[in-house]
Design brief:
The complex is a heterodimer of chains A (312) and B (271).
Chain A (H helix, E strand, L loop, with lengths): L1 H48 L2 H4 L3 E2 L4 E2 L2 H32 L2 H13 L5 H27 L17 H25 L3 H9 L4 H30 L2 H6 L17 H8 L6 H37 L1
Antiparallel strand pairs in A: 1-2
Chain B lengths: L1 H9 L14 E10 L2 E11 L3 E6 L6 H8 L9 E9 L2 E2 L7 H7 E4 L10 H12 L4 H14 L3 H4 L12 H13 L5 E5 L7 H14 L4 E5 L3 H7 L2 E6 L2 E7 H6 L4 H7 L5
Helix pairs in contact in B: 4-5, 4-7, 5-7, 7-8
Classes of the chains: A mainly alpha (312), B alpha/beta (271).
Bound molecules: adenosine-5'-triphosphate and magnesium ion.
């Protein structure tokens, strides 16, 4: 009798396992199909221009010559710069909220920070055009270039139009801040009380406890939150398109306009006149997809390495 | 090893006229409240240097509350407050102006569940010394070795100091936590049920260790295990419902308790 019931269970088990396996496999399959589709559509352009598609700055729909280097450069620079601005702020906010804020302040402030993530991208863009860009042009750029005498350095040289790589980075920073901050806050709150008590009992001040025990314990999670922010920044389209200036040119100056891959696709797909142009846009999409995948794999690998260090 | 020895000497100087810093604790009329609820009532007891004092009593009677008052671990808890005096070598540890960081260096603590940092064995032991002074590489190596030797862990870990502490067994982790506390060269060591998560062999090692350590430390240990209290301690204090019912030499308290409640507890007649 025992054997029949065991047998029955194993049949049900097998069906169930098959079904869940199928569901589980369908997601990666979708990703693979999408990647194949994009790659196939991108192929004509990639075949025509070869490596020059990645390295050339010439993007001319009339002549049918496409090089995406400025958009690739702009995507990476604006995102990395955004993280440089956002990470200290976001981690600072998270530390304040999890370690220092009185209970009555913690909830409302955390809620407001999280709310930043709920603001539609296009609203950020509008705010960027009407508030941030003028502010950068009239206050920040003159301050950096003239008062701080950084105008001679390549990073801050040239005229201050307003729409620029800097504007894109600042707006991206504000947009990714809530993601980094809320994940970091949760990670910090998850650090066991016993770790904090261990540090305090050894004569640590509150700051020493945070620096020496809480943050190291949480480091892999904090790293994960930063990479999550990077993933967000790389793909962000609308707000960036509205403030970056959309100029297909690589400039060392952060004051100069630039382009990103997402903006390029968004701006041009509706007016792509011929097959090669469309294929070139698909190729930009393929590169964006590839970079996003690499970033995510890199992130997983980093987190895995830190975690393994934590266990080994 | 020389560095560690000189530090032993340094630790022996204390402020206050005539009193040498030996880690003598005198508790006078100490009461404690968690917000409106009083957890400890009028506790007075001397905790002697170079001796182990065991705190026993049923769950919730205030043993942890008492032991955590000695190194002011309640400081961050809103609404918690104490009254009375806890004198460490004549200095009131409850004094608002007292340097808590310095106090906690003098009074080390080991918790119920071992809580090593997820760092290397070396970095765990070096954590306190790195905070409190800026030792050279050589000094730090000596301090770490000395602390691990005192915690009877050196031979087991000397070839794997760079490995992560979370890979140690439960008993080794708890001895590592003791070594980490010892690296600060404390005068007092507080242990709150240090063996409750350990098997008998690991427990025995810690008990032997306490026997060694008490030669130069004031040791206060909370335990639920009456045999353990009888084995390791010189003096025993029995807490009940937030009051110190009775305290005295361990053999006397276990063989001839003065109070009826003490006798009931040690003979297992109430839970
Ligand atoms: N953070 C706290 N807030 C409020 N009350 C507390 C807090 N911690 C402990 N108490 C109360 O204080 C009393 C003493 O608790 P304590 O933890 O000191 O007991 P204990 O003797 O250590 O018990 P155990 O043997 O179970 O560890 C208990 O009634 C407990 O409920
Ligand atoms: Mg307790």
């Amino acid at each position: 009798m025992a054997s029949t019931s065991l047998h029955g269970a194993s049949v049900g088990d097998r069906i169930f396992r098959l079904a869940t396996t199928a569901f589980a496999l369908s997601i990666p399959l979708l990703l693979v199909l999408l990647a194949i589709d994009v790659a196939a559509a991108a192929w004509p352009a990639l075949k025509t221009f070869g490596v020059a598609f990645l390295t050339s700055s010439r993007w001319d729909a009339v002549d049918g010559v496409f090089g995406a280097a400025p958009a690739i450069y702009g995507t990476i620079v604006s995102s990395v710069l955004a993280l440089l601005i956002a990470t200290p702020l976001a981690v600072g906010v998270a530390i304040f909220l999890s370690e220092f804020a009185p209970a009555w302040l913690r909830q409302p402030v955390a809620f407001l920070v999280d709310l930043l993530a709920a603001i539609p991208s296009v609203v950020y863009g509008l705010w960027g055009i009407f508030v941030l860009v003028p502010f950068l042009r009239e206050r920040v750029m003159p301050l950096l270039a003239d008062r701080l005498h950084l105008g001679g350095t390549p990073l801050f040289s040239g005229p201050a139009y307003g729409p620029s790589m800097l504007a894109a980075a600042v707006i991206l920073a504000i947009m990714v801040l809530p993601y980094i901050s809320s994940v970091t806050r949760e990670v910090l709150m998850a650090v066991p009380r016993s770790q904090r008590e261990a540090a305090l009992a050894l004569g640590a001040t509150r700051w020493e406890m945070i620096w020496g025990a809480v943050l190291p314990y949480a480091s892999s999670g904090v790293l994960g939150s930063i990479i999550l922010g990077l993933g967000r920044a790389l793909g962000e389209t609308m707000a960036v398109t509205m403030v970056i200036g959309n100029r297909h040119e690589i400039s060392s100056s952060l004051f100069a306009p630039g382009y990103t891959m997402a903006s390029l696709i968004a701006n041009e797909f509706s007016e792509a006149t011929n097959d090669l142009h469309l294929s070139a846009l698909m190729a930009v999409g393929a590169v964006l997809l590839a970079i996003t995948l690499v970033v995510n794999v890199l992130a997983r690998w980093l987190v895995w390495r830190v975690q393994r260090q934590g266990q080994a | 090893m020389t560095a560690a020895v000189t530090m032993d000497l340094e630790a022996g100087t204390a402020p206050g006229g005539g009193v040498t810093g030996t880690g003598a604790l005198t508790v006078e009329n100490f009461s404690f409240w968690y917000g409106p609820t009083q957890a400890l009532f009028d506790i007075s007891i001397d905790l002697d240097p170079q001796a182990v004092t065991a705190l026993i009593g049923p769950s919730g009677c205030g043993k942890s509350t008492f032991i955590r008052s000695i190194n002011r671990m309640h400081d961050l808890l809103p609404g918690a407050r104490g009254a009375g005096r806890i004198l460490l070598d004549g200095e009131d540890v409850l004094d608002r102006g007292l340097d808590v960081v310095h106090l906690r260096q003098r009074v080390g603590m080991v918790f119920q569940r071992s809580n090593p940092f997820p760092k290397s064995i070396y970095d765990n032991v070096a954590w306190g010394p790195r905070l409190n002074r800026r030792p050279s590489r050589r000094e730090l190596d000596d301090v770490v070795e000395h602390a691990l030797r005192r915690a009877a862990l050196w031979d087991e870990v000397k070839d794997r100091l760079r490995e992560n502490a979370t890979g140690l067994s439960g008993g080794q982790q708890q001895r590592l936590c003791i070594a980490r506390a010892l690296a600060n060269e404390p005068e007092v060591l507080l242990l709150d049920e240090p063996c409750s998560a350990l098997d008998p062999i690991a427990t025995q090692r810690i008990e032997e260790l306490l026997w060694e350590l008490k030669k130069d430390l004031t040791i206060v240990i909370v335990t639920h295990n009456l045999q353990q209290a009888a084995r390791v301690s010189d003096r025993t204090a029995f807490f009940y419902l937030g009051r110190l019912v009775e305290h005295g030499p361990t053999d006397q308290l276990f063989t001839a308790p003065r109070e009826e409640r003490t006798e009931a507890y040690i003979t297992g007649r109430f839970g």
